[in-house]
UniProtKB/TrEMBL annotation:
SUPFAM superfamilies, A to Z: Flavoproteins (SSF52218)
A Pfam family reported for this protein in Swiss-Prot or TrEMBL: FMN_red
Gene3D superfamilies xref list: 3.40.50.360
UniProt-listed InterPro entries: Flavoprotein-like_sf (IPR029039), FMN_Rdtase-like_dom (IPR005025)
A GO molecular-function descriptor: oxidoreductase activity
NADPH-dependent FMN reductase-like domain span: 6-150
Protein known as: Flavodoxin
Domain of life where this protein originates: Bacteria
Length: 204
């Protein structure tokens, strides 16, 4: 069943637009798959914004995180996409999680954390190991903040060790990655549709 769900892909590449980005490519592939389920999607390249360090909604002095946060608040599905650097998520991805931490104290009218009812999925690309740990760390952080993770809600691609190659330079999407994106997207929509109709219980 199609829905009026909305998705936002936060691309945590270290490269600002219009530079080509593997993290951007895989995020857009997920949005394309979500579109097949009637989901409207948008991409935000976080490096295009001046996102200040901190754990408040607005750090002032030209901080542009509030504009991104407003987009997150308006969607049902968050696609969190990061490259792998030195075996870890990008510094921008870490900053996004730190800025989202403020949402633990933001609540709705019934006392639920503000991100309750939103679904999050993760994609990781890189030419070194680290994807499993990045997915695990990101899932834990997003779940702490209040996002719900669907079954098999992560996808990744790593090239073989010591032989660098970027995901964006592949001739075609590997079948295992394409299959995972299909499952991830279907499960995300299923869960988001359910949560939109049946929100978590009120807190208190």
């Amino acid at each position: 069943m199609d829905t009026d769900l909305k998705a936002l892909a936060l691309v945590c590449s270290l490269k600002a637009s219009p530079a080509e980005s593997s993290s951007d490519l895989i995020a857009r592939q997920i949005l394309d798959e979500l579109a097949g389920h009637g989901v409207t999607g948008e991409t935000v390249r976080v490096a295009d914004y001046d996102v200040r360090p901190g754990v408040d909604d607005d750090m002032g002095d030209g901080d542009q995180w509030p504009a991104i946060l407003e987009k997150i608040r308006g969607v049902d599905i968050l696609v969190f996409s990061t490259p792998t650097w030195l075996g870890h998520m990008s510094s921008i991805a870490q900053r996004v999680l730190e800025r989202l931490d403020a949402q633990l104290s933001a609540t709705d009218d019934e006392g639920r954390p503000a991100m309750f009812g939103k679904v999050a999925v993760v994609s990781v690309v890189g030419n070194e190991d680290g994807a499993h740990k990045i997915v695990a760390d990101t899932f834990q952080g997003l779940n702490d903040i209040g996002f719900t993770i669907p079954a098999q809600g992560g996808t990744y691609w790593n090239h073989e060790a010591m032989n660098p190659k970027d995901y964006k330079d592949l001739d075609e999407t590997p079948s295992a990655v394409a299959s995972t994106i299909t499952t991830l997207s279907s499960n995300a929509v299923h869960l988001a549709r359910f949560l939109k109709g049946t929100q978590y219980p009120a807190v208190g």
